Amino acid sequence: MKWPRITVVTPSYNQAQFLERTLASVHGQGYPDLEHLVLDGGSTDGSVEIIRRYADRLAWWRSERDAGQSAALREGFDRSTGEVLCWLNSDDTLAPRALERVGRIFSERPEVDLIYGGLRTIDAHDRRLFTQWAALDLGPLVYESAFTSQPSSFWRRAIYQKAGGVDPAYRFAMDYDLFIRMLLAGARALKIRPVLANYRIHPATKSSNLQQVCAGEVARTIARHGLASGSSRARVLRKYAYRLLRFARDPLNLIAAVESRLRGHGPEPVQDYPSAPP
After folding, report:
1. pLDDT reported for residue 212
2. Which terminus in the chain has less CB density within 10 A, N or C?
């Protein structure tokens, strides 16, 4: 079996508290054909010193002021050479053997464009909070939840390029926008059971601080592609129908919903996304 080259792009800015755990999780994979690029936005907290310790294992890195996370991601993917792509933020980590699992599937199943698995949510001290399971289908993503499981998702370069790549105009929902465009471009997605990554929740995360920005950008994507229709009442009915369908298809989603509420992290707020301007 020929292992596909997997590119991991890590955008970084002032996350020295977590960065070494992120880098170690990538380079501890033991994957035979790994390409890792780190694009730091000019950190001043010791991140650069950590990156330098890994420099001989990185395909490329830089630390300079840039136009933000989305622009850094686009730059990283433009510089990369992997057949399979993903990104891992500087406060998240890959699960053990994640790259081996997805590399094997991509090698054996050429019809698959996008693979996603479980995403374990952890706190600042690596303690598990709950595990989430996405549904990367247009219906649930448009009407029920904008959750994409981005840290535990991997896709082929061909579908990324066909979709047009990361849009640098997005500040938060660049993953949602990219995944919607990949699905619209015909991406064949495969959900697998193993947990592939850990997503860290802590007070400084963008998820904690930019929910209004996220809602607006999700609305923009939905409106741009004309993905939602019907009255507000019809959209609410579709929301609950897709939620019930998601729980029925995978009961672990129901367990995740209960766990997240018990730990004070409810599901993403439901917005009237289609009414927002493009």
Report:
1. 77
2. N
**Alpha-carbon gap, residue 46 to 61, rounded angstroms:** 15
Residue 1 is assigned to a structural domain of this protein: no
What per-residue confidence (pLDDT) applies to 85?
A: 98
Q: The domain containing residue 241 runs over which residues?
A: 6-275
What DSSP state is assigned to residue 131?
E
Total count of domains within the chain: 1
Q: Which of 172, 87, 92 is nearest to 124 (CA)?
A: 92
The answer to whether position 88 is within a domain reads yes
- Does 64 fall in a domain? yes
How many residues would you count in the chain? 278
In contact, 6 and 84? CB cutoff 8 Å: yes
**Which segments of the chain have a pLDDT < 50?**
208, 267-278
In a domain, residue 227? The reply is: yes
Instruction: Give the residue among 264, 153, 206, 173 at the shortest CA–CA distance from 15.
Output: 206
User: Residue 199: which CATH number?
Assistant: 3.90.550.10
Q: Given this model, what pLDDT does residue 25 score?
A: 98
Beta-bridge partners for 191: 116
Q: Tell me, what's the pLDDT at 278?
A: 28
Token couple for 17: 């508290």
How far is Cα 80 from Cα 74, in angstroms, rounded to an integer? 10
